[in-house]
Design brief:
This protein is mainly α and 513 residues long. It has helices at 2-49, 55-77, 80-88, 98-115, 118-121, 127-154, 156-159, 163-200, 207-231, 238-241, 249-258, 260-290, 298-321, 324-344, 349-360, 363-385, 390-394, 396-418, 432-460, 465-480, 497-512. This is Transporter, major facilitator family protein.
Length: 513
């Protein structure tokens, strides 16, 4: 009997490790995909897509495409909670989230390849039809990518209800996500130039080089999404199985707007996301047009990659001793110093690299704190409103990333045109006004946003590890009393409970300080 129990325990442990590996692998391709879509697609548009078009016309088309991308992504922001509601109400024998990993990964990857081909060369045949079909393709791509992203992070509360166990899954996803996102930064130029040479005989960027890049990212996207679809299994905790039905879209939006802690965390993260993505989206211009050393840009990806590899596994260890609140504040302080250095020393390669270390090292801590705070707000909302909206709540983070991505696309396009950083332009063509325009958009405006993000988090975000533990205990007590079973149950009797938990959470934070 003892041996059988030992074998069963060992098998369960191996299964748990296998599921963690499969889940972690998923964000490798997902983050690479996001970087290719939010950052390098616009770089491709401004540098290569319209290379066969007259320069004046090309500038107008670049403006049209970047504007369309911003408009499309902002419009789809309001769709994400609806997509989250669809995921929340999905019922299949494979679970709630895994089917969307399969479909979302496949469709979005195929369409990414299509847009990186210039719609199979249509851009050089008929620009009007190209723009029409591009809009349709990009909208569908973004929707299916969102379904993949929402279902991925929505799985975390389905895997565990413990805050620290959730931090393990979040750390794993962030660890591989850092490899995927920053790995793309390392390899994008070598891939594009290599395949450009293979197909054209020249190391200069070409359509064929960017198409090969799109195909590689698309294949990685499919493989990693399917690792989650086939390598994980959703569990049913008592709180999940006894949760009320999620309702329709109106109830989903109502649940979001009634969850005050969700909204404050979201605002703080939104300000950070816009600043972060806007800056990373134009760093390639810093090296190409200011420092006149585009080859050194790959070091940016290496710095970010190493920072992510170190900080992601370190985060749960630090979080056991340091409350998430102080990790977030420390990370923001580091970013503020980095922005000041980048603004002052943008012509000094060594100082730029020092600043980039300070910029990238805290990124993982900030993002994981935001994700975990959003995840813990699920139980906060369940206690306050009587509704457990997992995917809808966690659709907020990709929705915020989309806003950041849309702003980044707009900033990159604006800088490329306003500063003359398009087509065959070089560092020698840059004027003092060009450089000042670049520094203002890339460093000074994002610095203001980071400061605002820090202030919101410090003074408005109350949810903490202690507060979440208190909320879970209250929910379990209500479950034991039979109060979390009926869809007709009024949520009025729990309106004051989160406030009490918030008070204990705030007190805990004060004692920790």
């Amino acid at each position: 009997m003892g041996n059988e129990q030992t074998l069963a325990s060992g098998g369960a442990q191996r299964g748990k490790i296998g599921q963690r590996v499969a889940y972690a692998f998923g964000n490798l391709g997902q983050s690479a995909f996001y970087n290719a879509l939010s950052t390098y697609f616009i770089v491709y548009v401004t540098s290569c897509l319209f290379s066969g078009v007259e320069k004046g016309v090309a500038a107008k088309l670049i403006g049209v495409i970047t504007s369309l991308v911003v408009i499309i992504r902002i419009a789809e922001i309001f769709i994400d909670p609806l997509l989250g509601n669809i995921v929340d109400n999905t019922t299949t024998k494979w679970g709630r989230f895994r089917p969307w990993q399969f479909l979302g990964g496949l469709v979005s990857a195929l369409l990414l390849v299509v847009i990186y081909t210039g719609m199979f060369g249509l851009v050089n045949v008929n620009t009007t039809w190209f723009i029409v079909l591009f809009v349709i393709c990009f909208v569908v791509l973004d929707v299916f990518y969102s379904l993949r992203d929402i279902s991925y992070w929505g799985m975390i509360p389905a895997l565990s209800s413990d805050s620290h166990e959730r931090s393990t899954y979040t750390a794993l996803g962030s660890f591989t996500g850092s490899i995927g996102y920053n790995g793309i930064t390392v390899v994008v130029i070598p891939i594009v130039t290599y395949f450009s040479w293979v197909f054209t005989g020249s190391h200069a960027e070409s359509q064929s080089g960017w198409t090969a890049f799109g195909i590689i990212v698309g294949l990685l996207g499919i493989l990693t999404a399917w690792s989650v679809a086939f390598g994980t299994k959703e569990s049913q905790s008592a709180l999940r199985s006894k949760a009320q039905k999620n309702g329709g879209p109106l109830q989903a939006f109502k649940a979001l707007f009634q969850n005050d802690q969700l909204l404050w965390v979201a605002l703080s993260y939104l300000l950070y996301a816009i600043a972060n993505v806007a800056t990373t989206g134009v760093l390639i211009f810093l090296f190409k047009f200011v420092l006149d050393n585009q080859a050194a840009y790959s070091m940016t990806g290496i710095i970010a990659l190493v920072a992510g590899l170190v900080m992601a596994p370190l985060y749960p260890i630090l979080n056991k001793r340091i409350p998430r609140r102080y990790l977030y504040i420390g990370g923001m302080t580091s970013m503020i110093i980095a922005y000041i250095m980048l603004g002052i020393f943008s012509n000094n390669m060594i100082m730029v690299f020092v600043a980039l270390v300070l910029f990238y090292v805290p990124g993982t801590m900030i993002q994981m704190t935001a994700i975990l705070s959003l995840t813990d707000s699920i139980e906060y909302g369940q206690l306050k409103n009587g509704k457990r909206n997992e995917a809808v709540t966690l659709s907020v983070r990709p929705m915020l990333d989309k806003i950041g991505g849309a702003m980044s696309n707009g900033i990159v396009g604006f800088i490329a045109i306003a500063a003359g950083m398009t087509g065959d332009a070089t560092a020698a063509d840059m004027t003092a006004a060009n450089i000042n325009t670049f520094k203002t958009c890339a460093f000074y405006v994002p610095l203001v946003l980071i400061v605002l993000s820090l202030l919101v988090f410090m003074f408005k975000v109350k949810i903490s590890e202690k507060m979440h533990d208190d909320i879970v205990k209250q929910l379990e007590a209500k479950l034991a009393a039979g109060e979390i079973e009926s869809d007709d149950e009024s949520s009025a009797d729990v309106e004051d409970a989160p406030a009490e938990a918030a008070g204990s959470g705030a007190a805990a934070s004060g004692s920790a300080a």
